[in-house]
Amino acid sequence: MRLAGLGMIFLAAGTVLAAGEKGPAPAALQFFAALKEKSGSMEEVLAASALSPFCGEKKRDQIAERLRRLGGKFRREGTTFFVAGERVDGDYAGVLVAAETAGNPLEIDVYALALRRDRGRWKAAPVIGGFENSFVGFDAAIEKRLAALEGWLSAERILRLQQLQTKAEERLRERMNKAVPRELLEKGKPGEVMEAFVKACAARDLAAVLVFLGDADVDDAEAQAGLRGVVSRGLQQSGRRGPWRLLTSPSVVRVVAGEERAGNEADVGMMFYDPVDASPVKLVRFPLHRSAGQWRVDLPDVFRRAADGKLVLRDVPWLDLDDDDEKIRKNFGRYFEKSRKPRREASVEEAGVAIEGLLRDGSLEGLFRFLFRHDDLEATERRIAYAEVAGLWSMFRDEGKGTSEAILLDTLTEGGAGLLVFSVVSSSRLDRVQLTPVLLLKDKGGWGIAPGVTSRGNFKLLPGKLREDEAAVFADYTGRRRDFEKEAASHFLKRFARAAPAGGAKASDAEVRDLVTRFRGMLRDGKVLEASDHCALLDRGDGAWEALTTLSYEYRGARHRGAPDEILGVQLDGPWAALSLRVDSGPGGEPDYPMYLVLVTGTGPRIVLDAGLRLATNKGREVLNGAILKRIEANLGDDEAGLVRRMFRKHVEKSNADRKEWLKSTRSSP
After folding, report:
1. Cα(126)–Cα(52) distance, rounded to whole angstroms?
2. Beta pairing partners, 594
3. Which residues are registered as beta bridge partners of 134?
4. Quick one: 505 and 446 in the same domain?
5. CB neighbour list of residue 527: distance below 8 Å, 6 or more residues apart
6. Which of 100, 470, 631, 653 is most solvent-facing, going by the fewest CB within 10 Å?
7. Region of poorest pLDDT, from 80-89, 321-330, 411-420, 557-566
């Protein structure tokens, strides 16, 4: 349900249009959708906007950085948009766009966007809130009309936000009415209710979580607001520490560990397997009670305190377990296996493909289901097996995001034992390709992960024939390891285009800016492997690995930089281009000045990764630049190598001038 009256669009002349008619509103929605969609680069967004051609490069980069951050916020929060109001004055307009956070209808904001019609197309102003840095001309009469539109946007935004927040309560009620099956609350077992509750938390579904916590039973408005605030803040918490990550993190596996019921009250033990913790298994007891014939979950105090930022160490219940609870905690594996069906595949090859998929974009729970099961496994063996699978998964995944890439190189089989050979490339060490073997065993259901996982097994009661098969398949892998390492390195380098110009191609200023901005954005977002897909190599030998070492350092620097990158200029010459950049190096450090050499190849524009020249401010960098220039000369013709040298000389001139101004402004600052 949308706010009454918001389905109408208000025009300056007082005319009213139906919301479905053509106007600036669709362009406004498209602008915000593009912000949310784009990762890193804002060049396409700015090119489609009403940005003034007189906007300087420094200001343009600042605008792009603000838009990039706003788009990142929209992606993280799963924001959806709708039009909350519109006013048109000839070729100029103001649109109020409401933004809702996914799963939390109480989180709503309204953005004021100015637009200008240019040759029949509505274009958004690049600065939220008005026509700043837009190409609108210099006519005094127009400026007066634009000021009126900006005034309307400012005043109306506050009014619409207040109205929407009031209506958000109604929408929340509607969602709560449909969020949880009534039959589950009325007839479900306490353990089943808890399973559904933790799934709602993991999905960050505020409406469903509030239903489980009995929001509708709270008569006091202040108490109800307090509960909603606690849950809303808790569900939005992120990071590698804190109680709420047990309920919300995609890395955590959640298992019911028994229930006790006495009349209208119950107690359910929940175990949480958190792979980032040195002691991964946590046991938390959740009280439940029945109200109006339905089960309600009582949120333990540790979660309330954590949401309010008042948590202290003594509040953490899993640090003080009695002997019975400690025994339950140590048997996580048995409880998991009772509640989850095993997953098996008919062949080693099929198991390899499935496990590769889980490591790429699956879940730890999915990988746990692949573990070999046997009643004779000792408790210690089972704990080690789960810990090794969690360690394997953590090599590739961090809070649901990929940190390394697993490529299945080969599969080996010997009787009832199999082995998967994975090539592993880490975002933080692109210069090192590692091999990770994963052992499999066959049971009556098919192929699963052996208790030893990546080493020679820990299952003491493994039948003699299986032990022989396991030893044989591992010996086969060991004997061929060097060949696998060469294959892994070759496979990784194939993802880089060859630095050869496409016939007749010419680089353009816009696409060079877009490429480098997108590349840097991916580094900041930790998407190093994706960023490498936008690169080419001159030398696929030692030079490639040296360049990848540099890229790994650049990745770490990009993630911790403070000020936004600033483009100092772009040089173009046929298929070649050079972009000069100033990069922040963190608090107290001087900026870095890399030159990104770009070449239009047969697969499109690519950054030449092993031509990473930079302004030299010390002897070490001078030596490195000299080695890179020699590599360029060895892999390019005289004319092309000379062109790169000339581009670099201009880059040095421009960078030295900028550095001089930077040092002057820094030293003159208070």
Report:
1. 9
2. 614
3. 51
4. no
5. 39, 427
6. 653
7. 557-566
Per the CB < 8 A criterion, the answer to whether 40 and 520 are in contact is: yes
Domain residue limits at 95? 8-178
Nearest to 440 by CA among 366, 367, 360, 372: 372
DSSP assignment letter at 565: P
Tell me the pTM: 0.71
Take residue 34 and report the two structure tokens written for it: 């593009």
pLDDT band for position 307 (50/70/90)? confident
What is the number of residues in the chain? 670
In single-letter form, the type of residue at position 375 comes to D
Token pair of 112 as six digits? 């004021």
Three-state DSSP at 404 gives strand
pLDDT reported for residue 3: 37
DSSP labels for 431-462? EEEEEEEEEEEEETTEEEE-TTTTSS---TT-
Cα–Cα distances in angstroms (integers) from residue 334 to residues 256, 341, 371, 375, 622, in the given order = 11, 12, 12, 9, 61
What's residue 481's pLDDT? 93
pLDDT digits (tens, 9 = 90+) for 628-643: 999 999 999 999 999 9
Q: Which helix (H) or strand (E) holds 453?
A: none
The residues that bridge with 604 in the sheet, in sequence order, are 601
- 2 is a domain residue: no
Is 3 within the bounds of a domain? no
352-385: string of b/e by CB count within 10 Å (b at 16+)?
Answer: bebbbebbeebbbbbbbbbbbbeeebeeebbbbb
CB 35 within 8 A of CB 45: yes
Q: What percent of the chain is helix, strand and coil (3-state, nearest 5)?
A: 45, 25, 30
Residue 407: helix, strand or coil by DSSP? strand
Given a contact cutoff of 8 angstroms between Cβ atoms, the answer to whether 214 and 197 are in contact is: no
Q: What average pLDDT does this structure show over 353-374?
A: 91
Q: Residue 572 and residue 404: Cα distance in Å, rounded?
A: 35
| Side chain identity at residue 189, one-letter code | K
Instruction: Render pLDDT for 237-246 as a digit per residue (tens, 0 to 9).
Output: 776 778 899 9
Give the lowest-confidence range in 273-287, 299-313, 576-590.
Answer: 299-313
* CATH number of the domain encompassing residue 457: 3.10.450.50
For residues 225 and 374, membership in a common domain is answered with no
* Residues 435, 383 within the same domain: yes
| Residues 6+ positions from 209 with CB-CB distance below 8 Å | 197, 200, 201, 231, 235
Evaluate whether 418 touches 442 at the Cβ level (below 8 Å): yes
Distance (Å, rounded) from C-alpha 651 to C-alpha 645? 10
Task: Please name every residue paired with 598 in a beta bridge, in sequence order, or none if there are none.
Answer: 577, 607
